[in-house]
Every structure is written in C-alpha cells, then in structure tokens.
Amino acid sequence: MIELVTIKPTKAAGNALIIRGVLAIIFAVLVLAWPKLSVATLVILFAIFIVLDGITEIIQWSTNRRLPGARRYSSWVLVAGIVSVLGGILAIIWPNVTAVILTLIIGWWALAIGVLQVVAALFLKKAFSLWWLGLLSGGVSIILGLVLVIFPGAGIMGFLILLAVFVALFGVVLVTDGVNTRKLAM
C-alpha cells in the first residue's frame, strides 16, 4: 500500500522543476530545428539532456530530503535522477549506436522515468492540488516508452519528431509544476 505524505513545497523544489522543464524544451527545440541530425549527434544531445535532468533531480533530492515527511518521496526523486544520469552516461559511451538501439535505450528510459513519476505523483496526491500533472507526465512517458520498446524499428525521423514532442510536453508540465510549487511555497 502506498503511504501518502504531506510535503511542504519549497522554492528550491519549484526552481529545480522549472530548470528541468526549460532543459527539456531546449532539447525539443534543438531536435525540431535540425531534423536531419545524425544518430550520433542525437545520442549526444539526448545524453546531455538526461544527464542534466538527472543532476537536477539529485540536487532536488539533496535539497528536499531533510524536509518532514519527504524521506520516502525524495527517495524516488533520487532514483529517477540516478536512472537519468546512468542512461546519459551509457548514451555518451556508445554514441554511434544504431537507431534501433538508441530507440530501445530511450524507450526503456521513458518507461522507467514514467513509472517513477506516477509513483511520485501518487505520493504527492494530498500535498499538491496539481499532483495529477505528474501522473499525466508519467503516463505519457510510459506510453512513449512502450511504443519505442515494442516498435524499435520505426524510422529515425518519425522517432525524432515523436521524441521532440514528448520532451516538449514533458518540459511544459515540469515548468507548470515548478511555477505552481513556487507559488505554494510563498
């Protein structure tokens, strides 16, 4: 059974969400602006994005872990941050992977992050009125991950557009959640 906790929102947590959202939107714009990127270039861009996203989550974890009631929730933030950093490092180590392998790596990452976001959103259900944004973001991430894992042979151009749209939506949700978290912290 999931134990729901009450966590007091902080400006630092809101800032971390906004930074993660802005990074996601920048990544999406770069992919859409240069749709003929090579697979290796896409790998490096994606790796940079998820490493920065993971580092931001780890910083968010270190900021919030001492707050009353935040221990169990913050553990999920730490796990999500570590998964992102490790995924980015793997992508940097093997930048010349095929489109199918890249698709599978991103698909499994999206599945893992989606599940962690859903769990985190459920923990925040009583703490934040907009907890459902995290649930929505996690659901979209799970759907993207499933599509990419089940159909990895899809063309890289279609994949690039799908990835950019997902990351842009993910970024908008994070920025919205960050702004609302900052408002609640005041």
Characterize the structure shown.
The chain is an all-alpha fold. It has one domain (11-180). The protein contains six helices and no strands. The radius of gyration is 16 Å and the shape is elongated. Keywords: Membrane, Transmembrane, Transmembrane helix. InterPro entries: Acid_resist_chaperone_HdeD, DUF308_memb.
Major beta sheet summary: none
Number of strands: 0
Give the count of helical stretches: 6
Strand content: under 5%
Structural class: mainly alpha
- Gross geometry: elongated
Radius of gyration: 16 Å
Number of domains: 1
Entry keywords:
single chain, 186 residues, mainly alpha, 6 helices, 79% helix, transmembrane helix, Acid_resist_chaperone_HdeD, transmembrane, membrane, DUF308_memb
Short description:
The chain is an all-alpha fold and about 190 residues long. It has one domain. It is about 80% helix and about 0% strand.
Layout of secondary structure:
Layout: H1 11-33, H2 39-64, H3 71-93, H4 99-123, H5 131-150, H6 156-185
Helix pairs in contact: 1-2, 1-6, 2-3, 3-4, 4-5, 5-6
